[in-house]
């Protein structure tokens, strides 16, 4: 059993939890909790490392067996050590390091009849997690993320997405307007959600395409809006200045599939 | 200037931030941040106490003046004292204690043609905040909360609601099924959102009524579902087991108004 917080595996795991750049450098990300670790395994990911406490292995024997069988390495750790890698208040005692490359089983390819979501500079990991969860639930075929979104592999996004991050095909681009422009020229319908000069979303006919949603505070950039073939908006009766980004995304995607 | 964390006003403020029962006992709640404090004042609330740091008063002179003019008492506090009452990482230096009774300017009355939301045992303050924000943005006339929801006056709900909590008429009941039953008998349409034996929400004709949404994990109680006149569900194509409560509420309320 690992009982030292200075153990190299534990230190690396803790660093993966905290640092987006370290995650990118190594190509690994982490997930904590019984359900989300199991979800990763069931989505076809093989944990590089599975860390668990003895009491959790005892408490969740079936899940333990399932995750352990898929894992390349596993280590029992003390509660004290687990608290170092955990970012939750009441840890369940399961922690996995996953390999980003395992996601290649879900290849990303734009198909003109498909339904896609593009996110520009979404900053809040809870919002991004919820948006990915909603996208998967409604049946989105893939997600394009501008590289200035918060890190899609962060523990908060992984958890908030309820595992959608494992499965939903996604890709990143450091030139979202350029990317969207090319799709628009190729005849893909691209929808900018923006309150200015936009069509009421209930009046728009959808037959596939890409829905773009923007930053929580400032919305889509002018460049992204210009790259799109259509502008759409959610008509609002109420007093609030705007919907939360995740709530707006829910309604926009819902209308796309309705 | 208050420089001691043992100051009675500061101690009471800190306790109001932390304790739901203390908030109920005193009838006070708190809000922190420039925008939300100003929002409270503009919604007709008169701060019982306004605590601010000298640097924040200097940085936001117009907001400071507006909030100060509406406040019954105001105190300058040191940064150190402010950190005791703040529950954010980068405090903006404005903190108000508000009186729940000021909300009586927004009376609650069910009107058969109106559109209402009822929440049963929503546990996560971020979800409840987002749901209230969405409800206000879409034009909901009032919200009914079961008393086992998380505290609607908690700082997280106030902040997440973007001030909707100040304005949206709301009331609490410790018998939600009974309350809904009476409305149903009175001819108000009451909609249970539940995946079992329910009608596709896109096929439902809405002309006012009450939309009920349930707990994040377990949904609505059987009692609440039975009290309703109709059951509705969001059809899903994707793989995710369900939508996040706030995302589901966005879609349900959106359909109610569409």
Helix and strand topology:
Two copies of one chain form a homodimer.
Chain A: H1 8-18, H2 20-26, E1 28-32, H3 34-42, E2 49-52, H4 54-59, H5 61-70, E3 73-76, H6 79-85, E4 94-99, E5 115-119, H7 125-138, E6 142-146, H8 155-160, H9 164-167, E7 170-173, H10 176-185, E8 190-193, E9 199-200, E10 209-213, H11 222-227, E11 230-233, H12 245-257
Parallel strand pairs in A: 2-3, 5-6, 5-10, 6-7, 8-10, 8-11, 9-11
Antiparallel strand pairs in A: 1-4, 2-4
Helix pairs in contact in A: 1-6, 3-5, 7-12
Give the uncertain stretches of chain A in residue-range form: none
Beta-strand level of the residues of chain A, as a percent range? 15-25%
Described by its quaternary structure, the protein is homodimer
Helix content of chain A: 25-40%
Word description of this protein:
2 copies of one chain form a homodimer. With about 260 residues, chain A is an alpha/beta fold. Helices cover about 40% and strands about 20% of the residues of chain A. The first copy, chain A, is built from 12 helices and 11 strands. Chain A has helices spanning about 10-20, 20-25, 35-40, 55-60, 60-70, 80-85, 125-140, 155-160, 165, 175-185, 220-225, 245-255; strands at about 30, 50, 75, 95-100, 115-120, 140-145, 170-175, 190-195, 200, 210-215, 230-235. In chain A, strands 7-6-5-10-8-11-9 form a 7-stranded parallel β-sheet, with helices on both faces. Chain A has a 4-stranded mixed β-sheet with strand order 1-4-2-3, with helices on both faces. In chain A, α3 (about 35-40) packs across α5 (about 60-70). Chain A is elongated and about 60 Å long. Chain A starts with 7 loop residues before the first helix and ends with a helix. The relative contact order of chain A is 0.14. The model of chain A has no long low-confidence stretch (mean pLDDT about 95). The interface of A and B includes residues 130, 135, 139 and 254 of A.
